[in-house]
Amino acid sequence: MKTRVIGLTITAKVQRQSEKGDYERRLHKRLNGIAMPDAIKRLPLSEDGYPIPWFAQWFLDGKPGAVGVGKPDFRFPDRQKRYQSNDTQCWICGERLGEEKAFVAGSSIVRTRMVHEPPSHRERAIFAAKASPFICNPKMRRNRTNLPAEDLIINEDVSHPDTYCVWVTRRFTASRCSGGRKLWRLGDPDVVLWFSGGKEAKPNEGRGT
Ligand SMILES: [Zn+2]
Fold it and tell me: In the predicted model, what is the mean pLDDT of residues 25-39?
């Protein structure tokens, strides 16, 4: 009996290791060396090896649908989630937020203090600032092929600057714009972390004003 239990334990362990190996094989090579919070590791991987953020809209036959059905398109935030978004649930991992909220935003945030994207956990926002192919590449424009017929708002900072930041704060207000989008007005930050090309940057590095 004892042997059998040990056998089962070993089998389970080997299985976990092989699942881990499979995950690492599937993970996009660009993400090697970027610290991945556990909550990010719990997200499923897309076909091209990126963790699928909680906000991503899934599509089946070109129509937005339920999570897990069809394929996710990171360009579009899920309509329902965007509409329901509040300050209690992380935009990236979907888990509960604490008092501290982290907003990923282009450098114009310093001037405007306004952002449309809901908040996330600090370390998950940092992961996004380092890992998102769009945020990390200032020359990249959103791929506008295969846009769905539905009127969905593309997830894009239109200015798409060289530098993005993670604005960490406990002070903000949220209001509703047309189309169900929320507008967040940010108060003074606890800290602002800057990123350029996926790497941490000094506050003034690569930042056009
Ligand atoms: Zn999170």
Answer: 93
CA of 75 to the centre of ligand 1 (A): 19
Number of Cβ atoms within 10 Å of the Cβ of 206: 16
Model pLDDT for residues 45-103, shown as the tens digit of each residue = 999 999 999 999 999 988 888 999 999 988 888 878 877 777 789 999 999 999 999 99
- In this structure, what are the phi and psi dihedrals at residue 182, rounded to the nearest 5 degrees? -100, 150
- 150-183 pLDDT per residue, tens: 555 655 555 677 889 999 999 999 988 776 678 8
Distance from the alpha carbon of residue 209 to the mean position of ligand 1, in angstroms: 30
Distance CA 179, CA 175 (A): 12
In 3D space, the residue among 191, 156, 186, 176 whose CA is nearest the CA of residue 75 turns out to be 156
Ligand 1 center to 195 CA (angstroms): 19
Determine the distance separating the centroid of ligand 1 and the alpha carbon of 11, expressed in angstroms. 32
CA of 47 to the centre of ligand 1 (A): 22
How many CB atoms neighbour CB 131 within 10 A? Answer: 19
- What's the N-to-C CA distance of the chain in angstroms? 70
Flag whether the pTM goes above 0.85: no
